[in-house]
Queue: 3 jobs
Job 1
Amino acid sequence: MRTIKILALCIITAPILQVSAQKKKLFRGKPIEFGITAGASNYMGDLAKSVAFNETKPMGGLICRFNVSDFLTLRGNALFGQISADDKNYADVDVYRKQRNLNFRSNVVEFSGCFEWNLLGFEETQNGTPMSPYLFAGVGVYKFNPKTKFNYMPTDPNGVALHPAELQKYDGQWIELQTLGTEGQETTKYNDRRRYPLTQISIPIGMGFKRQWDDVWAWGIEFGMRKTFTDYLDDVSKDYVDAQIVGGNSGLLAAALKDRGPELGYAPFDNGVGRGNPGQKDWYMFMNFTITRKITGGKTVCFQF
């Protein structure tokens, strides 16, 4: 009698299960996704204690995802962006920044790997849970190279001689700052100050949201900050060094660019006056949209009864 009841239950429920299986698609294994990303980049550091939105620059890159489970995704990034800042952005409210008159820009190239934690669980299909907010963290290697634009001025606004004629050939050029040692790096007096490496490690952290568009394509948006271990994304960190020391080691151009206040008619800063804050490291950040497509795995199948 018990066997008959079990068989009857199977006969009744089988059609229901079959219909349900036809509606819900599953994936055989987890897919690998490849895609592109684009958005905006910015920076925080000695020349911008908070985000200066007028310094926002474009960014873009490639991403590759492997969905280990519904809740965990591994991701690789190859990203390019630009960061910049200028003391002129704060000249109206900060007298010191107006006198300092420093600026920079730098391209940033990053290769990184991250873990994404899908807070709601994420299924790569329109059925199930096709969307989820996520948090991410990882480690990256990035390359930067701060530059500033040199404006040749034979005299300052007060008519006092400023730049020697030998520097006129650099007028209007973007000059690489790391090689100049603008804070006395590798001079005899400051031989404990080494030129900062242009390739370094960063820690990407952030949040985002992604949604499956269909069974192949997905889109998302995220915001991520990069913790760095340098205070020289902007070539500004410690204090002012005498122009003769900088110039004697790296030339007239280095002496001219280590203190830009005289270009506005201000007296040069004294040796030892703070140029930046070495106690706070610089950050760069990306806000970007992503579009990805499955390139392998994740073939759609249905339950068979």
Job 2
Amino acid sequence: MKAIGVDETSKDLQLIDLPVPEPGPGEVRIKVAAAAVNRADLHQRRGHYPPPPGASETLGLEVSGTVDAVGPDTTGPRPGDEVCALLAGGGYAEYAIAPATQCLPVPKGVSLVDAAGLPEVACTVYSNVVTEGGLQAGETLLLHGGGSGIGTHAIQLGKALGATVAVTVGSDFKAQRCRELGADIVINYREQDFAEVLDGRADVILDIMGAKYLPGNVRALAKQGRLVIIGLQGGAEGALNIGALLAKRGRISATNLRGRPLDGPHGKAAVVAGVRRDVWPLIEEGRIAPVISARLPLAEAEAAQGLLDSPESIGKVLLTV
């Protein structure tokens, strides 16, 4: 099969040949229609985010396509079913292996290709904003990186749950698109200080920046606010004003999705089941839709990854197979 490999020296992406993988117990093989590009793929490419033990070394954390084989003792999707799936790796290829419990049916009203842009963002947002952050109707949700795949999905989910949604963005184009998706407060971080704008008003903050935004996030938190850190684009080590956090009775948690176990109360299977129960109906009702900025052929993976840093790119970039 054709897949995307990373040159060990130059780190360039290239189309290579790999054996078609075989599904093991509890797994399915998917003939890939599309794979989504995520920032984690860029970190892995540069050697900063290795896959979990036993996972494919090939880039790609989510795909959509048609099940064409199932492993022994596998229940759930059957050959011929159209699915989208959360992966620990292996998505940039013509075939991918996924645990059956990490597969989701393609939602009604969403094309097979565009469904590739749903599993990672839906599971990330649901597990962190709803499960970890405990967002409730009437609360205020602050999202950093409002124009990202995670941000565009979280805006829609936050509004569907009855929250006031604030976002930070870096361009007027992204600001306008976030407003169109339902964001109530849009802050261009190049022109405004989000901590000053939201001083003490954010009940839940979903943060991709880490250290750089830590002081501002604590200032922005409301009483009993919850800061959930899922990325370190602004560094891994920063100063924390514990006194300010104590005064607000605030809570900080840091989580990731890729490294979670498959099973258990906080495992990926439980996250996927929660998404299917609580988020998929919202998608099928048209209250949440995948936001796709570009669809490129698999061979153009290099260009697709470059689009993630473009000021004109919003939402997800997909690789079609």
Job 3
Amino acid sequence: MEGHVAAHAASVWDDRFKTGPPRPRDWLELPYIVNQYINMAVTGSPDMSWFTFACLHYVRPAERVLEIGCGANGVGFDLCRLDVARHVVAIDVSPEAIRVSRDRIAGTHLEDRIDYRCEDVTTTDLGEDVFDCVIVNMALHHMLELEELFANVRRCKRPGSLFVMNEYVGPSRFQWTDAAVREGQRLLESLDERYRIHGSTGEVVRTFTRPGYGAMVAGDASEAIRSSAIEPLLSTYFEPVDRRPYGGTILQWLLADIVANFDPERRPEDAAELERLFAEERRLLRNGVLQSNFAVIVVR
């Protein structure tokens, strides 16, 4: 990342890792959504996550794996714990995330198998033909210098090995298309007000709008900084292998800050309402009104 963006991103994520997880507010934090919508779209089974699918079909038993943007709870830990990878090099720009990760494995049998590094993956020397697989989970959309990153990945992975990612690839800075705003507003208005109570303010959410650019940059200068460029650039550096989109084009923003109002495991009516939203987004994606903002992508 460019210096000031990387520094700001590291500071933001340091603070998050120090204070612990915030109150659930994201669509990915509700297991029902993950199981019944995302897993079904990616793997065809509510009980199989993208990560399990990737381990079975793409990572396989590997000697050395590189994880980009590991954070404090990266997939590299599970790759080693499940013996899918013998060794993992896990990189993140947040010193606090790396400290938490190192503390987690200190004194365990994984201590010698995972090398946590506080580095910028766009500039660090990772060597040539070193890794049997490269994996990233929701970190690429925080990267500014995608060209440098992809060139580094292409250089460090072995010929023919795979680059696996679970990623937000929608509009940069969350500047939704007009169609997404229109359909998002329609679906928001279709929800009973009890589902639209904002988790922080307690007010009823009434508008589906694009977030303010300035507020996004102030909150996290790296958020979705060049997300819309990820897929076009991937095609210039790598050969496509698989792409499994799973929507989120409306649901991500529609459910932000109101997802805690849904309790589908205990209230059947909540499950039914979520299923209605799922069906609507699927229909809009199928008909080409919207494009998926999230996807599991594999390239070679």
